[in-house]
Amino acid sequence: MKIMFYLLLLSVLLNTGSNLFAQDVQTIQPNVDSSTEIVQAENAHSLPDPIMVLPFVVLLIMIATGPIFYHHFWEKNYPKIAVLLGTITVVYYLLYLHDTHSLLHTAAEYFSFIALLASLFFASGGIMIKVDRKATPMFNVAILLFGAVIANLIGTTGASMLLIRPFLKINQDRAKPYLIVFFIFVVSNIGGALTPIGDPPLFLGFLRGVDFFWFVENIWHIWLPTVILILIIFYFIDSRNKSVESDREYTGKFEFKGAKNLIYLAIILLAVFIDPNVMSWVPNLSPSPIGLREIIQFTIVLLAYKTADREILRYNEFDVEPIREVAFLFVGIFATMIPALQLIAHEANLLGDKLTPGLFYWSTGLLSGVLDNAPTYLNFLSAALGKFGLNVNDISDVKEFQNAHALYLQAISVAAVFFGAMTYIGNGPNFMVKSIVERAGIRMPSFFTYIVKYSLPILIPVFIIVWAVFYL
Hints:
The chain is mostly helical and 472 residues long. It has one domain. It has helices spanning 2-20, 22-25, 36-40, 54-69, 71-96, 100-125, 137-170, 177-186, 200-208, 214-238, 260-272, 292-306, 310-315, 321-336, 338-351, 357-370, 373-387, 395-404, 406-418, 428-439, 447-470; strands at 128-131, 254-257. It has a two-stranded antiparallel sheet with strand order 1-2. Helix 6 (100-125) runs antiparallel to helix 11 (260-272), helix 7 (137-170) crosses helix 8 (177-186) and helix 8 (177-186) runs antiparallel to helix 10 (214-238).
């Protein structure tokens, strides 16, 4: 109940602000993940003071250090800390900048984000996948590859929520953190680079006018060797992990229960496209940050939980704490990152004419690792179009850009999706997978350990190869 109170409080704050400054609201298209409008609204609003990036930095530092150095305090108070730091930014924008435009767009992005994650979390929680087979490095590779493929059909979030529990069950006698880290690398991020359904940044590109099949046509030849290379690395690491000796005999049987939840998953994914920018009949619920899409997905949350088979929930060790943790932490992240995104967007547009595809690749990628990769993608997409005198809000301009300057669009798209795996906060499913696994009793690496032990030595060399082959 506390989480709903805080979300309601944020919504009330934003809607109150929208009434105080109604002139801003008239220019807003709600329920659209469109951070680039923030850039275009700079004539109406001043850029934030750089010091306002501090709440975001403080929150990141506390996310990184809290579970290690002051675990009990953090576990008890992280909701209050996230909301407090977010409120500082919201109040600054309301009372000092008089900018509700940015806040309302961020609220729409947040509710769209949490509605999708929560609905997929509850729908997948009612599905039981049981594979009675011994875990081997090659079998684990097959699971990760399967997850990478279906991530393009049900999204990285959907694939992650569907497979993480059976992946844990299969490896229960040899479960170690690296298994989950590679799961995050492949299933929760890199796998979803081929369709707009796969990862939120690409869906935003689709909303702007990029053809649905453009991504698979222009990225598959980067996606495939990247996935294979990471799976090869995983195979050699996993080959050194020996299972606990057991006399247990495996039947090789596959069991699936909770088929009705597949209908819920289908509704959730179809609802993603229920957007005023895609379908003209979809009502515009301005100035509410929640649209028809989010209403449908939140409804699925209730239905999936109420109709779930309790036996399946017990088998999956289903717990609402992972989605609660993600909801609270990301409400703080979304709010506090507004100044950082605006300042980055401003600089990116100023320097757009100096940025090559390689520079777009690294700038989009590295920032996607520490900021939400969806608005980061849009900011650099806007800058790339501006480099050629094109407008990200003009569908014909986006079509021209994807055809005449495909290398730029490819670099930005690949980077936003791939680099989302660099940290727990680079992409929504990362933190949720971490939380689910920790609730199952597996101690995951800390924020900094994840980066130092896995991202830097494994991902960065792979991403350097991608850059050297395609963008150097």
